[in-house]
Queue: 3 jobs
Job 1
Amino acid sequence: MILGNGLLATLDRRDQRGPYGLVPGGWLRIEDGLITETGGPESAPAPDIDLNGRLVTPGLIDCHTHLVWAGSRSDEFERRLNGETYADIARAGGGILSTVRATRAATRADLLAAALPRLDRLMAEGVTTVEIKSGYGLDLDSELRCLAVARMLGELMPVSVVTSYLGAHALPPEYATNRAGYLDLICETVLPEVARRGLADAVDAFCETIAFTPTEVDRVFTAAHGLGLPVKLHAEQLSDQGGAQLAARHRALSADHIEYLSPEGVAALAQSGTVAVLLPGAFHYLKETQLPPVAALRAAGVPIAVASDLNPGSSPVNSLLTTLNMACVLFRLTPEEALAGVTANAARALGLDDRGRIAPGLRADLAIWDAARPGDLCHPLGVNPLAAVIRGGALTRGRL
Ligand code: NIG
Ligand code: FE
């Protein structure tokens, strides 16, 4: 199949293409679910489908979500507006632990029913790959249940689901006076079982004063490596814990949040090739004032990804297009950087080298938009110009 006469934002700068790797009047050939050839108007073969100049991007990738949960925390939104902080609420047993109580009480069917519309809302904006973390179950059965539901979502829906085990998200109440016991449970029981069942593609942790120390995270990461699983980290969200340096030492795929990242942390990420994942939704909702060090990350050549962090507490942002706008307005990313952050660099944050750009040999995961310029995906709020989605070479949404 040949798609012709599109405005291709390839996000591929290898052929000395300009911003966005843009190819006006571009075409691409799809065979067996892969892109096998692309080109500009000078070499265009007769197309099977005329895109009429519409914008084509790689299918979007949301590389950081907590999409499987039960319950609601809209009450905490009100509490924060009445003066309590995110950390106050967490220490008082709310926050993540409130979602843990609801999630533990939910069946697989409950969780699936709650997660499906959230996933569909992401997909309605051109998402073809999504990462989903556990971390709201914390005990063995609930973590396995949440990860199994995440895997099921990928079977039910035309989207690639990549999973992360986030047992070290919060200390569960039954271990409130036994931190070491919970670390034992993660490293000796839950993580091996998760790995044995093939339920996780990576292992994540939350390194923070209200969560786990670098020493504790180090233990979890060491156990992950022992099972052959890559790691990633919620780092430097509310304070500088040196989490990025720890993540870099463990060759982490990504360090996420990083508002309080230090110059040493930036250097460590650059050295290890770890992707910096920016989560402007959490910054927005927590009314953070400390900006992530975007200029330093740029200067050091650290790849920057952008994700929704979709969760019931710090980032109830069920939209990657809204997130793109927030990355530009709040973090001053250029629209090109933001779009690379949900395509090429998001793929890298997930350790996937078969997607995220429009280039021969990669999966034919494409989003087609009624938009005249790629920056139009970042510019307005509340506008969804998605026209169609092709995933693995098949039309899965809209029409061409
Ligand atoms: O990425 N930082 C820790 N975890 C989530 C928040 C989860 C929650 O508030 O429920 C985050 O922001
Ligand atoms: Fe998160």
Job 2
Amino acid sequence: MVRITSGFWRDRMEAVAKKGIAHQWKMCDETDRLENFRKAALGEGDFVGRFYNDSDVYKLLEASLYSLGEFEDVVLVKRVEDVVDLIANAQWEDGYISTPFTLQYKGMRYFALASAHELYCMGHLLEACTAANDLGLSERLIQVGKDLVDHLVAEFGPDGRPGYCGHQELELALAGWSRSTGDSRAMELSRRMTDLRGHQPSPLRVQFDEPKSDELLKNYRALILVDDQYLGEYCQDDMPLREQTKAVGHSVRAMYQFCGALDGYPDDPELISALEKIWDNMVSRRMFITGGIGSAHRNEGFSQDYDLPNYDAYCESCAGIGLAMWSSRMAQATGKHEYMEVFERVVLNNVLSGISEDACSYHYVNPLASRGDHRREEWFECACCPPNLARFILSLGRYVIWEEGDAIVFGVPVAMEGEIGGVEYTLESEWPWEGGAVIKGFNRSGRKRVIRARSWGGAFGWTEFEINEGAFEVVIEGEYRTQWTRSHPAVVENVGRVALMHGPMVYCIEEVDLGFAAHQFSVNTMGPIAHLDNHRIHVSGRIRSIDTGLYYPAWNESNPYPHTTDFVPYYQWNNREAGSMQVWVAED
Ligand code: FUB
Ligand code: ZN
């Protein structure tokens, strides 16, 4: 049990719990996402929306359960009961559930595993069922989960057909359900789906030859087939995961796949070694400074090494959440602290940029530069990100503390309290603005234990303290550095530019502070910097504002216009009036 108690993250949780969730349920109502379930229960009416709209309801239900585990809210209790009824009524006798396939594509269950998202949606439903089981809430939803797993095992288990979804998700959901309920069939099915993926002929590929699947697959041909040949890289179905060395394809799919595989095989050295290779490729060549991943809009995913375009970055909020989920699992599987550094980076920058201060508007993509035309929106036609942000923010505690042998590992110094392995603890900190933390508590485990925490700030790595039985208190020293950062020269867009970081926080400049377009400011990295009370950082530089002509001789740059401005934390951008923004700023 972990409770985030105060400070920065607690504020984010409260915004989501008190405003964001109600707003998102309203949007689900207004966009027929809930109506689809009502119609499916009756078996009549037109399905409205995209294949995967059911998943938005499931993710929001999961977020609502986390919220109820922490905040009292009678209106939300009623909402959850109603939604669970809708879902239970739309579930078939045999446990199958999908509103588009109940209403529109009748008789076509599993005809298009690559595109139809049935199993992806069921995976999100199963995660909500797992949350209900973990929190002891909603027997009815837990029963939905049991029936669903019975169906999945019958259909795709050892006595069923080989199959898995074009969009990974079910693998991690099955493993989570198994952990929560002890149902080993779910874990076996999760492993089976991971193991089958990437071997040819793929069960996804053969359906492209079926004329009756055409209608369902048509929008995915261009993504998955190249010259009419099945390559499968888009959905990581081109080779077995254990042979993969690079991060490829659709980035959310990739992240969920890595999570599901690790959940199934947390101690498998061959799998971990493959994931470490993919990780190295990704963090050294394919990840933005914000922890964002996915450089290309075309496939919502990875492209080539060092292709990290600032204005056109995709960096989907869901991909950032997926990377955070994978990072924490990698840290737990390997014991290496580097993974939690990426966790902090992606969560504090890419993920939090996805949600407004009031938690009621969202970025789907999170670029590192903007001309002023990119704004948060209150919802999207493809609305995977808003409910994913809500559930992640409310469940951060699941990713930041764990046991490893005798050690209690604190992966991130978020202010929290709880009990783990017989050790009660309270962590106090000023995270994410300052390194350092005080951890105190009471060891009732009956043996000596180790408190292991990252030495946040100056030096990286783990710091360890042995604690005896009884009361303990340890102080972790840490001081965040403020530093100008450059990128590898192979990243063409960043040549001659610098980014400002304070600890794990990436900063940016915005037109609303500058009074002119952000790309016209160049910064003096040798000049003084001042930390302001509101976490801004004040710097000096000059304005590149030229009133000559379109072109002019370089020696004639006679107008240096000194100027000072504030950098603001990147995650806060776009919370004020529209305007341009830059993370990578020209160096004077
Ligand atoms: O396909 C379902 C979700 O919608 C994906 O994860 C996102 O990238 C978006 O395409
Ligand atoms: Zn998304």
Job 3
Amino acid sequence: MRAVTFQGPRSVEVLGRAEPELQCHDDALIRVVASGICGSDLHIYHGRVPTARGFTLGHEYVGEVLAVGDAVRSVSVGERVLGTFATACGTCAGCRLGLYHHCHEARVFGLGPSGGSLPGTQAELALVPHADLTLRRAPDGLPDELALLAGDAMGTGYHAIAAAGIEPGETCAVVGLGPVGLCAATAAKAAGTAAVMAIDMVESRLEVARALGADVIHAGEEDALARVMDLTHGRGAHVTVEAVGSAGALETACRITRRGGTVSLVGVHVAPCRVDTGLIFRKGLRIVSGLANVVAHLDRVLAMMTAGVLDPGPIVTHELALADAPDAYEAFDRRETLKILLRP
Ligand code: NAD
Ligand code: ZN
Ligand code: ZN
């Protein structure tokens, strides 16, 4: 089969790979119908994650079930399914608490050794461990380009808001308007916030946020702190989502959040960065962070997406053939596109 493989910084190649086969009783084998490129793939693409050369990338996917192990109950051969970017065992101490993102045996598709060496989904076929937890039947009427957001970008955007414990009537700022930030913005709206302030420096992404009803702030042209203060009667946002994964974005998030407020840090920080802990201390900020519990959120997120309550707008801007993955990665990296779907 053909698969998108990591070849080194800013280099991916579509190569032939051995077809995966069922290995465990609770595995499923899927034919990938569509797989997205995520901001997390860019961390690998930039060479900032120790992903092995030749490893298959991708962790956002919709597929058709080709085979299931004899212990799989919730999906069947022939069904259209979507899944989460990470797997969980369902039985360890973390999973028993519902903290699937803290599963002791968690694996992440397409990441490499630090993700349990689980080959990615930007391929013709993918092996899906613990299929009853990882996969869901895709609701009829939910198109591929929305369905594949549920187990990653939307699950993470929803998590960013849920983990922050935002209350109706509060204000939310989102730093970084890639698919994750835009999904967080729609989740904040759905949570009954009084205002959502969306910050980025890419005009086309600010435009999508504006259509979602957010007050948009162009970080390259305006003083984000001054604008947020203006929009919040001088107090700052109750909750700020950092959906970038950089020192600059985290600093902005800490500055624009009000005293006693929460910074919800879902952007992946692959390297240490300096933050002003004095500022965090003086403002008494609460910081919630880490991988999103996408397994736990999946049914709720799908229900809300199907009902149109979580509607991220036109996040998938391009569909390309798997063979065009090198061009797709370049374009996404240059922020010329929002999410790109690769179709094998
Ligand atoms: P993306 O690269 O498409 O989006 C990042 C956006 O941030 C871009 O639009 C960029 O212009 C903007 N940006 C960069 N620096 C900024 C700054 N200082 N101020 C304001 N905006 C800035 O990525 P994405 O797919 O939306 O993912 C966002 C982050 O979420 C990534 O770090 C990704 O790894 C992470 N992620 C985390 C989880 C999780 O479980 N926690 C899951 C999925 C993705
Ligand atoms: Zn992702
Ligand atoms: Zn577990």
